[in-house]
Amino acid sequence: MPELIVSEKPYEKHEGTACFAPYVNVSISALTGRKQVEVSFKARIDTGADITCIPSEKAKMLMPLLLGKPVLIRAHDGSIKRARTHLVIISIHSYPQGEEVKTYRPERGVLLTDSDIGLIGMDIISKYWKLNFDGIAHRFSVESA
Amino acid sequence: MVKNNNNSHSKDTRSFLNDALKDFRTKPDPNERLRSLWKIGQLIDRTTDEELYELAAAAAVEEDHRVRGEICYAISRSQRPGLKNQLIQLLRAMAQDDDHYVRRSAITALGELGGIRELTLATIDPVLDDVESLKAVVEKLGQEMISLHESIQEFSNADSSVSDQDETVMDDYMISWETYLRHENKLLQEHKGDFVAIYRDKIVGIDDDQIKLAEDVYDKYGLVEALICKIEVEDEPIQIPPARVIVG
User: Fold this and answer.
1) pTM of the full predicted structure?
2) ipTM of this predicted structure
3) Which residues are CB-contacts of B84 (< 8 A; sequence separation ≥ 6)?
4) What is residue A35's predicted lDDT score, i.e. its pLDDT?
5) Residues of B at the A interface, defined by Cβ within 8 angstroms
């Protein structure tokens, strides 16, 4: 039974982005949880991303991390590059309570970006989430398996 | 008496020509129109300039290629200094006709009417067009070659990004990845679907539990950058938004 973890959260607009969009508060930790450092940031829910991305500056705080298989990335300009993946635990903070309520371990790992905002990709969305976007009211909800 | 005979003959000829011109204008059957044109061709020097030009202009756009070719022949036999330029223009256009017979007839007529200069122009003009077309095709091919070369270069860069790093960095991760690739076939045969842990050039564990493998690696080697991945055939390239993913 899916559990409501984000309820009617308003869309947000962040520096360097063009529009209001759904963001969740996220924490990350190393796969085994042996290195306990509080690393949090905002991540945009992005169905255009096949795989979850996290800010490299945040990931550095957990280094060294275990690594996943490098993946081939097709960028929107059609170019293909190989990028390494890192194995982390992603924790989603509930709204409005703000507690860490759900954790996910993306099997293929996550990508690092040089942005200060993360992306929750389809590896999490399509596997665990039921989403409700209200573009008129600029609010969204997330239920998670 | 002779004069009368000549006049009478002249009237008959004119009448014959008028009938042929009328038939050409009015008969819907192309065969009949062609026969009319043959008759007119025999008397082409008896037509007025207006009649000839009207006839030539009409025949030049006839659907039946025999009619178009025949008018070229008729024009070539006309001696009309006052119409020469107009007729040459008409023949030049017909020298580009889709039909080979019409083109040849028009070029021959141009030679008759305008001499060697017109003949040469009529012969070379279509070739020049072909040369221009060929030039455009070659230029396009050249651009496609450049584009293809760039794509190949891009693909090579993407494909060789690992080995590029091997030369420059070759960190633990790259050594582990290279180890995985060396053993990939065997791993796929024997442990497909499980997870493998590789540290530097050694396979240090295989398990169906990713977390357990991670614990084992940390227990054995401490906090290191080991590779833990599912043993599976590589997927299609993944799609990401134009965010700034750090590659390598």
Assistant:
1) 0.55
2) 0.85
3) B113, B114
4) 64
5) 154-155, 158, 161-162, 173, 176-177, 180, 210-211, 214-215, 217-218, 223-230, 234-248
Least confident segment among A2-6, A7-11, A130-134, B221-225: B221-225
Residues B102, B14 share a domain: yes
The predicted-structure confidence for B70-84, as pLDDT tens digits, reads as follows 888 888 888 788 888
Integer Cα distance of B72 and B56 in angstroms: 8
Cα–Cα dist B54/B76, whole Å? 16
State how many domains chain B has. Answer: 2
Of A14, A34, A66, A107, which to mutate for an interface test with B (greatest number of B Cβ within 10 Å)?
A66
Rounded to 10 deg, the angle between the B65-77 and B30-42 helix axes is 10
Q: Which amino acid is at B162?
A: V
Residue bearing tokens 């053993």: B183
Mode of pairing for the β-strands spanning A39-45 and A53-55: unpaired
CA distances to B113, B229, B236 from A75, in Å:
66, 23, 13
Could A67 and B173 be called an inter-chain contact, meaning their C-beta atoms sit closer than 8 Å?
yes
d(CA B51, CA B37): 13
Q: Which residues contact A121 (CB under 8 A, 6 or more apart)?
A: A46, A49, A50, A51, A52, A53, B240
Query: At B85, which CATH number?
Result: 1.25.10.10
* A82 neighbors A75 (Cβ within 8 angstroms): no
Between CA B226 and CA B74 the distance in angstroms is: 92
8 Å CB contact of B237 and A68 = no
Cβ atoms of residues A67 and A110 within 8 Å: no
Q: Which of B99, B126, B153 is the endpoint of a domain?
A: B126
Q: Flag whether residue A123 sits within 8 Å of chain B, measured between CB atoms.
A: no
The whole-angstrom separation of Cα A2 and Cα B32 is 88
Provide the residue range defining the domain that includes B93.
2-126
Going from the N-terminus, what domains does chain A have, and what CATH number goes with each? 3-144 (2.40.70.10)
